[in-house]
Amino acid sequence: MPAALSVILVSFSAIFGACMGSFLNVVAARTVEERPWWGGERSICDSCGRKLTALELVPVVSWFALSGGCKSCGAKIPLRYLIVELGGAAIGGLIAWRWGISLTAAFAAVVAAGLFLNALTDIYSGYVYDLFAWGLGITGMLMRLGGGAGALFDGLLGALLGFAVIAIIIFVSRGGMGWGDASLMGGTGAALGWQLTAWALYSGFMIGGVIALGLLLFRKVKRKDAIPLGPFLAIGGIVSMLTGPWFFSLLDMSVRWPWG
Ligand SMILES: [Zn+2]
Questions:
Q1: What is the DSSP code (8-state) at residue 76?
Q2: CA 66, CA 175: separation in Å to the nearest integer?
Q3: How far is the CA of 47 from the centre of ligand 1 (A)?
């Protein structure tokens, strides 16, 4: 693809990713608060209740344009909105950069959205919702129909591997990890296939370990505090999609459909 075209594609995907991040943030927040997902209610300022205008709802740009505060009451707009939108933009941009316009890119975008949603509900409530964890798995299996019997079998192996590894940790450690995490890795495994699931678990635990250590060192958390694991598993899944094919090529292994 010509360079100019791929710059346009990556930029467009980053903007789309930021909008998706913003949308999934609303879905996650409404799920946790047990409000309906879709309804007449428009986005409002959490503080003064004023309805936000379309111009105040542009991902990333609005946050900076308003200097992180509401125009009427001056209440701070939580930094997490910006982080979620920037995260979505980064993921969208990376997927387009990695796979261009392709079936794999579409597959990766759907999986990334599922992982993103599960990470957000875990951060907001401390729970992984079975609906979203298994929803990701079922969606993954349905998409795998496009890759034939081999791809479906790979998804099944991935689901078993992801679920089993967390289940073993639950039995061995008795605490720290819950069945929601097992469901999340089961669903992730169905979407990723067994190879990328193994790499996702490894990446997730490494990233989680480093961040937990950092939080301990800087005394942001105490040793006994529970740090939700779901977000790290989700980050591991996204990192695995982006880097797994390269990693397995170092081992002289080719990854299965749709990643190979
Ligand atoms: Zn306000």
A1: B
A2: 43
A3: 5
How many angstroms separate the alpha carbon of residue 72 from the centre of ligand 1? 5
Q: Which amino acid is at 168?
A: I
Q: Where are the alpha helices (DSSP H) in the chain?
A: 3-32, 61-65, 79-99, 103-125, 130-144, 148-173, 179-192, 194-217, 230-250
Neighbours of ion ligand 1 (CB under 5 A): 45, 47-48, 70, 72-73, 75
Per-residue pLDDT, 41: 63
Mean pLDDT to the nearest integer, 150-154: 98
Token output for 163: 């679920």
Residues with Cβ within 8 Å of residue 7, at least 6 apart in sequence: none
How close is the Cα of 68 to the center of ligand 1, in Å? Answer: 11
User: Which candidate, 167, 163, 230, places its Cα nearest to that of 194?
Assistant: 163
Q: Which residues contact residue 172 at a Cβ distance below 8 angstroms, ignoring those fewer than 6 apart?
A: none
Ligand 1 centre distance from Cα of residue 37 (Å):
22
Give the distance (Å) from ligand 1 centre to CA of residue 122. 27
Please say if the pLDDT value at position 54 is more than 90: no
Distance in Å, CA 42 to ligand 1 centroid: 14
Cα-atom radius of gyration of the chain, to the nearest Å?
A: 19
pTM over 0.85: yes
Token readout for 29 is: 């927040």
CA of 66 to the centre of ligand 1 (A): 11
The predicted-structure confidence for 75-120, as pLDDT tens digits, reads as follows 998 899 999 999 999 999 999 999 999 999 999 999 999 999 999 9
